[in-house]
Amino acid sequence: MGIRKLGYVGLDVADLDGWTDLLGRTLGVGVTHEKYGTDELALAEIDEFKYRLALYRSTEDRPRELGWIVDSPWELDRLTQRLTGAGFAVADGSSEEKELRGATQLRWFTDPVGYRVELAVGEAKVRLGVDRPARGPGVTGLGHFVLASPKLRELRELYESVLEFKLTDYRAPGLFFFRCNRTHHSIALAHADTTSIHHLEFEHGSIDDVGRAYDRAKANDVPISINLGRHMNDKAISFYIRNPSGFHLEIGCGGIEVGDDWIPHDFGRSDEWGHHHAAANPFASPRS
């Protein structure tokens, strides 16, 4: 497979200071502030690479780019051919965009719901390690995101048929989990009446790290939108918080890995235990 992992997410955010406070005080994630042209942005230092989450100060909240890391220039060319053959217009990223991403090559296209999707070759390591809260590694990486849209069929065609993600499992008829490596899923696609990122997940090193983040969220009055629980399909233990842009951040650990012999299946109910929603669960009864 040409795509190796989820590389980064860029967001336009109306409350950059609120995001910075959430990342620092509750999640223990350092933030570097930079100028990008005339834009002010904050780069979240999740691991030793340049960034995994870029936050651009804006007047509205919306996804700016979704970035996938590609194995090699040859795979980038191959995927470009598959995309153009499927009717997508693929463009090269600018030199400034490549420098910001830490990429040696960068191409992008617009997906069926209007989001900019990027394919990058290369990542830039800019630090030996990351300062974390005491007593644990805390956040260790960017895990996955869930994209909900009325254009579920078109999104499945893009990720499964064109970009060659593999279906791991699903809840019929409207929620599907896909992988691009051994991790259970790097993206999930769901039906919804309007398009949005339902949640973005930050991987943590242990259940103790998740628990300490849970305590800090409560102490800092961060809204917990879905309480602690274990998912049925990937077995991850997690909780969710409502971020300043209005969607969920999942704080989790312990998701399983799967191999090529894995058989996709309907995993039935959503959770082994917990994960009680503060508001109505849009995926309680997925629709086609």
Q: How would you sum up this structure, described in words?
A:
Helices cover 19% and strands 39% of the residues. By secondary structure, it is α+β, with helices and mostly antiparallel strands. The chain has two domains: 3-121, 2,3-Dihydroxybiphenyl 1,2-Dioxygenase, domain 1; 139-274, 2,3-Dihydroxybiphenyl 1,2-Dioxygenase, domain 1. A hairpin with a 7-residue loop joins strand 11 and strand 12. The model has no long low-confidence stretch (mean pLDDT 93). Keywords: Aromatic hydrocarbons catabolism, Dioxygenase, Iron, Metal-binding, Oxidoreductase.
Q: Evaluate the radius of gyration.
A: 18 Å
Mean pLDDT: 93
The SS-based structural class is alpha+beta
The third-level CATH topology of the largest domain is: 2,3-Dihydroxybiphenyl 1,2-Dioxygenase, domain 1
Work out the helix count. Answer: 5
Low-confidence stretches: none
Main sheet strand line-up: 10-11-12-9-13-16-15-14-17
Please give the largest β-sheet.
9 strands, mixed
Fraction of residues in H or I helices: 10-25%
- Please report which band the strand proportion falls in: under 5%, 5-15%, 15-25%, 25-35%, 35-45% or over 45%: 35-45%
CATH class membership of the largest domain: Alpha Beta
CATH homologous superfamily designation of the largest domain: 2,3-Dihydroxybiphenyl 1,2-Dioxygenase, domain 1
Listing every helix as H and every strand as E from the N terminus to the C terminus, the arrangement reads: EHEEEEHEHEEEHEEEEHEEEE
According to DSSP, the number of beta strands is 17
CATH architecture of the largest domain: Roll
- For the record, the count of structural domains works out to 2
